[in-house]
Specification:
Elements (H helix, E strand, L loop, with lengths): L2 E8 L2 E3 L5 E2 L3 H22 L7 E6 L4 E6 L8
Antiparallel strand pairs: 1-2, 1-3, 1-4, 4-5
């Protein structure tokens, strides 16, 4: 099973995920990133911090970029 790394980019700051997780597909990796982004945005709202900005950069073990999941894409405001 492939390993995916969920690095976080906020403006000029890059936080590397040193562990990653094993998932069956890139689609599942995107679903995982979206769920985690929802939790991050919810926590920011609870603490009064800005909820926008930041994104997961999902990468494989060989460093290939699979997807970028902006935190704001995880919530729907209508």
């Amino acid at each position: 099973m492939p390993k995916y790394f969920f690095h976080v980019r906020r403006n000029d700051v890059f936080e590397e995920d040193p562990e990653g997780i094993d998932l069956a597909s890139p689609e599942l990796a995107c679903e995982e990133a979206t769920a985690a982004a929802r939790e991050i945005v919810a926590e920011r709202i609870r603490t009064g911090d800005p909820a926008n900005g930041g994104a997961f950069e999902i990468m494989t073990e060989d460093g290939s970029l699979v997807a970028t999941v902006p935190f704001r894409s995880a919530i729907h405001l209508e």
